[in-house]
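Dock iron/sulfur cluster; give full complex structure.
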Amino acid sequence: MDIERGNLPSASAIDRYDACRGAYLLSRGKPDIKTPEMQAMADAGDRIHAWLEDKDLIDLIPEELEVAQWCDEQRQVLITKVFGDNMTWFFSEQRMWMFDPLTGRQIASGKADDIRIYSHTALITDFKTGRGEQRESPKNRQLRTLAVILNEDPRGRSLEEIYVAIIQPLITSTPLMTKYTAVDLGKARIELQDLLRDIQRPDAPRTAGEWCKFCPAKFNCPEAESMVKKFIQVDVPSKEGKELADLLNIVSGAKAIITAVEARAKQLIRENPNSIPGWGLSKDSEVRSIRDPFGAYKVLNEAGHITREQFLSDCVYTGVGDLQKALVKFAGMTPADAKRTVNSVCSKFITKTPKSGSLEKREQ
Ligand code: SF4
């Protein structure tokens, strides 16, 4: 039982429901089992969200703090663009509900990361703190759904325009903002009601794809299973064009299921080494590292094994990101100022090595 959402559809899953109409009924009430990697990412996201809600609530590690500060800077820019100097009131991380107009019963819900309101205008922002790119606001259905639900909530009924934006600082520093007027919200409400009706149909079709990655039903779903099986029979060298695009579209959903299978196997073998016939775990090993490089240099230098120049040229590597983080930590700069300072003051020390691009999905 999903107590917070009352087992009802939620805005955060709206893209999945759109792509796979049968996902809601099959996944209803199922716990969302995450692999350790996905759990670690979710936990980091939760810590950053907590800091954005209240900076005194939590201490972040430098990497998280950097992302949190970027989110905060972009949020401030958007707030100023929409409201100027006007004082807004705000609420965050509070679940809002949509009601059936005939029965008055709750039918869906949504929780926005940050909502600002002044007079008849609101701004909804959603923070994505990972590297996985999300659709920008004009095409983001989760944000459109949140705008509709806010407009139904007692706190948002008098709104005449709602701006929405997704802040994803590891993807872009200039998030796009979209404005919904009362007319737009009326159309979006009808579209949402149609979808909510559709996903309640017991015969709603299930379609597997990349969206299976976050579906709680992915381990009990015949369509997701067939998707993974497809890869067993695929003749990779013969694939190109549209056929290859179709395969790529389902790779990330299949990968998530495969990773979860491996994580489960590891967990069972750790509990009982004979639990899976023919499979075991390699020996645990240690990764060696030096926490105090100058301490190590000192003892080696004093023993006459290495000179200062040899040590500096062969053993010391400084990442540009590490340098920026050090300025944030020790010079009290914002991440953006640290980046500007390193780029200008240290430009002659920075070398650029070409890096091949990775596969990315483009909007069509
Ligand atoms: S696992 Fe994939 S195909 Fe199955 S219900 Fe979920 S989204 Fe649909």
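Observed: The mean pLDDT is 88.
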